[in-house]
Amino acid sequence: MCGAHVGLTHLQHDICPLKLNPYVVGHSSIYCPVLQIVKRYIVSMYSLYCSLVLLTFPIVSCAWSFSSGGTSSDRRIFLENTAKQGSAAVVLIGTSFADNAEATTDSWSHDKGSVYNIPPGSLSGQVHVITGASSGLGLESSKRLATAGATIVMTTRTAEKAEIAKKQVESYLSDRSIAYNKDTIHAIPINFDNLEEVRSFPERYRKEMGDRKIDVLMNNVGRINQKRELTNDGFEKTFQSNHLGSFMLTAGLFQMLNRDGARIVNVASRAHQFAKDSSTGKQGLDMSNLQGELSYGLDGWEAYGQTKLENILFTEELQRRADAAGLGWLTVSSLHPGVVGTELWNNTALAKSNNGLRSIISNLFFKNILTNEEGANTQLYLATTPMQQRDMFKGQYFNEYGNRVDLDPFARDESKAKELWEVSERLSSCKFNVE
Ligand SMILES: NC(=O)c1ccc[n+]([C@@H]2O[C@H](COP(=O)([O-])OP(=O)(O)OC[C@H]3O[C@@H](n4cnc5c(N)ncnc54)[C@H](OP(=O)(O)O)[C@@H]3O)[C@@H](O)[C@H]2O)c1
After folding, report:
1. Where are the domains of the chain?
2. Which of 137, 224, 316, 394 could form a disulfide with 304, with the two C-beta atoms 3.0–4.6 Å apart?
3. Catalytic annotation present for 182
4. Distance 221 CA to ligand 1 centre (A)
5. How many CA atoms are closer than 13 Å to the CA of 190, on its beta-carbon side?
6. Which residue has the CA at smallest separation from atom 25 of ligand 1?
7. Distance CA 422, CA 430 (A)
């Protein structure tokens, strides 16, 4: 039944979009049984398409590798890497159909092309801190939060990027004839490659914002390094930016969160599924390979996937600790924004490869990647949806359709989450007291 939202699976939910939700624009109202048939057809065609690609892939690879010369070891490495990239593509795009996702009452879900529209003025008086806001999802989120009246504090790698980001938000608002006050748009640099800048951020925030409490902290900063490199702090770059820096920042800002109701939104990824134990090959967080010491893999995708699993485990552990301390005002959630055509994606080996086969895979699988506008939907939804719904977000992970996803056991591993927390405190020399 179209109107019954409770307990719908992701697929059913997609078939019967929530037409009554005023925040969703762009849906067509088609009778659900018709949509159901169309959807089933699309899903079966999609499965057929994936199987064909996967079957064709090794055959074409073999043909290519044997006709192009090179040593047998070159061919083996090429085939291994290409096959892995192929399966990476399937994981990233394909499993959106298989996510064990559930739309709950009041949930929001969208199809490609729809935009989560935050009611104008609904965020007046709120302060939102958005990290990694100079481009992509962070910049898009900042624009839409400001449009809805929030005071935004963007973090950018450099002071120059801070000025540019502010101007971009201001012109976005001006272009839409939205009145704004310069006091509501701030940008403070943090280079996450330098932990000293993370450590000093709370003090710099206070200088800029006085004692204004933070309503939402959006830990959005993220990168994929294709080769293993260390920062001057001595940590692997992807690990430091994507996990350790955000862990420290959250710890540093914790006392400044609004105790009448605050949210932390951690932008993770479906790529968390690439995280695996380097000795057994099983999915999960490898504590002995946190910084890619033993295996970096797949042009950095494995290392990236591991940091995205860390974002999820951090979300769960922080919520557990907050609940245990009776901090009912805090809601922490994580999400996958979809595969989005941002700088991060465009700079991956898979997206920018000139290598014939990789670009074939890339073109086959990633033609329909989301725009920044679409990709920012879920993080904005989690950051702004009315507070009554916050209980269903606590410690949870959502997909690009705004649906809660039941994570695999390896992504709910409480002992790993606790261990990660303790290791992060030790590595960053930062005690994170949740109180
Ligand atoms: N795009 C996707 O398909 C996708 C899919 C799943 C998850 N995500 C996640 O979405 C989030 C946003 O990424 P995006 O896709 O919007 O990519 P993006 O356009 O590259 O944005 C990433 C932001 O993080 C900043 N950043 C990265 N490393 C930094 C560092 N060491 N210090 C300071 N700033 C740093 C970048 O600044 P600079 O420009 O100065 O580097 C940029 O502002 C990330 O957490 C990413 O993992 C993206």
Report:
1. 8-94, 119-428
2. 224
3. no
4. 5
5. 30
6. 132
7. 10
304 classed as catalytic? yes
Mean pLDDT for the stretch of residues 135-144: 98
Q: Please give the full DSSP string across 205-270, using - where no structure is assigned.
A: HHHHHTTPPBSEEEE------SS--B-TTSSBHHHIIIIIHHHHHHHHHGGGB-TTSEEEEEE--G
Q: Using CA atoms, how far apart are residues 360 and 98, in angstroms rounded to an integer? A: 24
**How far, in Å, is the centroid of ligand 1 from the Cα of 55?**
33
Angle at 290 between CA 289 and CA 295, to 5 degrees: 40
Is the domain defined by 119-428 classed in CATH 3.40.50.2300?
Answer: no
302, 275 Cβ separation under 8 angstroms: yes
> CB of 24 within 8 A of CB of 114?
yes
Residue nearest to atom 17 of ligand 1 (CA): 344
| Cα 273 to ligand 1 centre (Å) | 19
Token pair belonging to 418:
């606790």
pTM: 0.82
For 350-365, how does the pLDDT look when each residue is reduced to its tens digit (9 = 90+)? 666 666 665 666 666 5
Select from 96, 139, 144, 157 the residue to mutate for testing ligand 1; criterion: most ligand atoms less than 8 Å from CB.
157
User: What are the pLDDT digits (tens) for 240-271?
Assistant: 999 999 999 999 999 999 999 999 999 999 99
233 phi and psi angles, rounded to 5 deg: -75, -10
